[in-house]
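task queued by scheduler; priority normal; single chain, no ligands, no partner chains; default sampling; output format set to structure tokens
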Amino acid sequence: MRMPIEPFLVGVPDDVLADLRARLALTRFPVTLADSGWDYGTDLDYLRRLVEYWRDGYDWQAQESALNRLPQFRVEIDGRATHFVHAVSPHPGALPLLMTHGWPGSFYEFHKVLGPLTDPPAYGGDARDAFSVVCPSIPGYGWSQPAARRGFGVREVAASGVEVMRRLGYSRFGVQGGDWGASISATTAQLEPRVVVGVHLNMVGFLPEPAGPDVGPAAGTGLSAQEAADVAEMRVHRAEGSAYRLQQATRPQTLSFGLSDSPAGLAAWIVEKFRAWSDCGGDVESVFTRDELLTNIMIYWVTNSVDSAARLYRESRHPSWSGRVDTPVGCAILPRELSRYPRSWVDPYLNVVRWTRFPRGGHFAALEVPELLVDDIRAFFRELR
């Protein structure tokens, strides 16, 4: 017998918060080079200030109340409790939209776009562009329980999202995502080509070779100046900024002992990515508030999900799909995104019908440039409803 869909409220026990405060107070910081800054990883002085604010200034109860204003639910799928936000549009004919986050993000990434997507007139838009939005937490992230077996990768996550939509009664819907959410969304379209009406991506970083992870030696052939610059930056990232991926794809459990034990260590691991991957010019708090950074980190900490979240890299080392995605695809290309493949590399694999270069923004589009992302999602799906 299927378990019913049940409303869900975040409620972190007081003893978990007391333990967190004690750990933050006892943080032992490393001895670093005096002039290392961010060149060697997370800056010591910045992390000291963040930990101090986390301990003495950050108000989790206020953030928990804000999270609980989102319409959250859980449902059992294959023996696992799966957490999701289900924001239903008040407008007739709204298109269901399955939005999936990535790492080191969470469902919290989408909180700024839910209102404009579900109720466009309230934000200066057209009711005909309305969506009913479903934002699941990937299994193993936050309040979605992980699989208790090996091999639960992108394909299985995609199938889980499809099942959530089925349980909600949606037989036709769009998909959207970046990071893991992009790969999961493309895989969903391959699994359910008659159900998924369109795929909107704010990152294209999961293609087979030669447009794959290594960005091959012939990468500069026939490219525009902008595309060549994009590829050059991608090469720098592969060489200098991708060690996290190799660690999590090979030995995530070793890493998780430290990150599950030290909140400062977890913050250092995550905030460095938010700074390096966003369009912040080196000042991470020019794009994200401290509360936004810490609320996302708290979702990992209070659920002790850092190991199960990182494990997705290990379980997804091999491609989740092959061939071409024939469902219409819209690609939003952000100037500070990690992967910005030239369109000529993408077209053989995706049925691209919309290709938009954003004037600003990075990896965390829904948090960084929510208005631009909403506009592009609306425009892409307008012809697919």
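post-processing summary
- The chain has one domain: 6-381.
- Strands lie at 6-7, 72-77, 80-87, 95-100, 131-136, 173-177, 196-201, 325-333, 350-357.
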